[in-house]
Amino acid sequence: MELLYLAIGAIFVNNILLAQYLGNCPFCGVSKRLSTSVGMGVAVIFVCTLSSIFTWLVYHYILNPYDMEFIQTLAFILIIASLVQFVEIFMKKQSKGLYNALGIYLPLITTNCAVMGIALLNIKHEFNFFEMLIFSIASASGFALAIILFAGLRERLMISPVPRAMQGTAIALVTAGVMSLAFLGFRGMVQ
Amino acid sequence: MTLKQALVHGLWEDLPPFRLVLGLCPALAVTSSAENGLGMGLAATFVLVFSNMFISVLRKVIPDKVRIGSFIVVIATLVVLVEMIMKAYFFPLSQQLGIFIPLIVVNCIILGRAEAFASRNPVLLSMADGLSVGIGFTISLAVLGSIREILGAGTWFGWQVFGASFEPFEFMVKAPGAFICLGIILGLMNAYSRMRGETFIQT
């Protein structure tokens, strides 16, 4: 039950995008079409889960026992960057279809704060292995949910009469604010 | 680009995060108060100036194929430095900013300037570019933080602005306020640019 609460909390209440502000660059950048945002969402879930597992293991079995926590930032970004590179090469070799679908999003993910942010939050909340796994998958799913919903709204915005000065990113941010307001309604669902 | 141009372009032409729509996460997350915005901006400026310097020095040595990885290592090393300095001398601020200090590593502005400017230009020019974009970022964050803090908490840098009867507009310091405030400022800046006959930069 605890794990279920953790998952619901991470997806809805503390949505990584709309409540914790992580991963906003891809949120505004690749949410113009529904299909690209689905690709981005799936790629983030995939990379985020893998990178969380690796960073958690490295922190608990290498950095922590040898008192090297201060190097955490450097270690984590190197793990994420090399992991993304590795996944890209592996996908290209093994599964052409998957690569064509997700390949172009992979380099963008290296500088996605959501991936790094979740890795850091796992350590900050002192999760054990299973909690970490559930939290990462749930948070990344929250990202995918928000970006897919947002892309749907943006497709509608394309054909709406928006004031000239507000076109593009400006109206997108205001829309995101309204969405974030809607997500505030989930607060109180889980303690 | 001349030195003078490099020093001023970050203040209006390429002002992050408004004209250069990068680095939105810290701009939204840490601007619930003016002090946090200013602190974050200064930390990012420090990293930006020195990462531009080191990358510009090393630009002939770094092979093209692994350049992104090399940039990230340089930036991450500087961020670790900033983290330690802030923990040592500005402890309360570093507690406030929390995970957003290590997240400077993935701030797209820094990697963006490294890729677009420092890897192609001489050292002094790159440092000037880093300084100007960094100061622009600091000012933007401080302004955004001020607006949100004044309306949302009724204070500015911790000082009481309004009388006791002021009811704080709490929405502004929460997540939705951040998005809407940034969006409206962006819209106002676009309207002003249009009046002056400049072209839009963001899409």
Give an overview in words.
The complex is a heterodimer of chains A (191) and B (203). Chain A is an all-alpha fold and 191 residues long. Chain A has one domain. Chain A starts with a helix and ends in a 7-residue tail after the last helix. Chain A is globular and about 60 Å long. Chain A has helices spanning 2-13, 24-29, 34-63, 72-94, 96-102, 106-109, 113-124, 129-158, 169-184. The longest helix of chain A has 30 residues, at 34-63. In chain A, helix 1 (2-13) runs parallel beside helix 8 (129-158). With 203 residues, chain B is mostly helical. Chain B has one domain (3-195). Chain B has helices spanning 3-8, 24-29, 34-57, 67-89, 91-97, 108-118, 123-153, 175-195, and strands at residues 155-156, 159-160. In chain B, helix 3 (34-57) packs parallel to helix 6 (108-118) and helix 4 crosses helix 5 (91-97). The mean pLDDT of chain B is 88. At the A-B interface, helix 2, helix 4, helix 7 and helix 9 of A face helix 2, helix 4 and helix 8 of B.
Low-confidence stretches of chain A: none
H/E series of chain A: HHHHHHHHH
Q: Report the major sheet of chain B.
A: 2 strands, antiparallel
The beta-strand count of chain B equals 2
Strand content of chain B: under 5%
**What is the global morphology of chain A?**
globular
Distance between the termini of chain A: 13 Å
Helix content of chain B: 55-70%
- Count of all domains of chain A: 1
The SSE string of chain B, one letter per element, is: HHHHHHHEEH
What would the principal axes of the Cα set say about the shape of chain B? Answer: globular
Radius of gyration of chain A: 17 Å
- Structural class, from secondary structure content of chain A? mainly alpha
